[in-house]
């Protein structure tokens, strides 16, 4: 079984390397933003729960 990189898979889908690279760039950027938002929400909830414990 051969392993293919995600760029190779998207290259076959989008037919041009530039489009595939752009798609992967935006996909990674959106993933990074989503992870950042999730961490910020998790930290906010953690801080709120700690404040309630100290009351």
Describe this protein's structure.
The protein is an all-alpha fold. The chain has a domain at 25-55. Helix content is 85%, strand content 0%. It contains two helices and no strands. The protein has helices spanning 6-14, 17-54. Helix 1 (6-14) packs across helix 2. The longest helix has 38 residues, at 17-54. The chain is rod-shaped and about 55 Å long. It starts with 5 loop residues before the first helix and ends with a helix. The mean pLDDT is 79.
Radius of gyration: 19 Å
Can you tell me the overall shape? Answer: rod-shaped
Helix % is over 70%
Which oligomeric state applies? single chain
- Kindly state the number of beta strands: 0
Helix tally equals 2
β-strand percent reads under 5%
Biggest beta sheet attributes:
none
Mean pLDDT: 79
Structural class: mainly alpha
Terminal CA distance: 59 Å
H/E element order:
HH
Low-confidence stretches: none
Highlighted features:
55 residues, mainly alpha, 85% helix, PcfI, plasmid
Set down the secondary structure blueprint:
Blueprint lengths: L5 H9 L2 H38 L1
Helix pairs in contact: 1-2
């Amino acid at each position: 079984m051969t392993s293919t990189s995600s760029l190779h898979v998207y290259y076959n889908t989008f037919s041009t390397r530039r489009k595939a690279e752009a798609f992967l760039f935006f996909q990674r950027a959106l993933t990074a933003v989503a992870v950042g938002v999730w961490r910020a929400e998790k930290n906010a909830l953690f801080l709120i729960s700690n404040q309630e414990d100290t009351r």
